[in-house]
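Morning, I've got a small favour to ask if you have a moment. I've been staring at a protein lately and its backbone has me curious. You're getting the sequence in one-letter code plus the fold written as tokens. I've dropped the whole record in just underneath, so have a look:
=====
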Amino acid sequence: MPAKEIETLIGLFARLPTLGPRSARRAVLSLLDNPKSQMGPMIQAMQDVVENIQTCPICGNFDTQSPCNICSNPKKDKKQVCVVRDIADLWALDRANIFHGVYHVLGGVLSALDGVGPDDLNIDKLIGRIQTGEIEEVILALPATVDGQTTAHYIADRLSKYPVQLTTLARGVPVGGELDYLDDGTLQMALKSRRSL
């Protein structure tokens, strides 16, 4: 039986997404194999994050500066705002380096089952950004789920009185995807989103 301190560490690791008790135990054992070179830098990095991380008051991203490095980047097109569910989605899009505008993190999607309503999301902040008149296009990059689409329709309704172009990400068959392996929802969306050649 491991020491109480090790069990506590395993329990903390097990709370992380995609890590269950077994994976957490393996991760901790790996760290304990060489604690000075593995755990020391990790502890320092965590401490640095705790002391320096902040939420961007404009878009909701995490960074060590305010506004974040995306919002303060003069090369970013401030006329385009990509609305995402969470910071993980923002980082995924930004990492691809194909979108050159700025972002807005909602902090989730509307969900009646989970008790998430409009006041729980950063929708009013988005409206405030649009009211400045600087934004010309709002791209809704929300999940292709019922809750994601409900959120997109709600935002579209709220933005209908503003002179902004409202777009959404294309949905359908991924590049290299085989039809036989796709789920019914993806196939349905691909057919609905078809275009001329």
The mean pLDDT is 90.
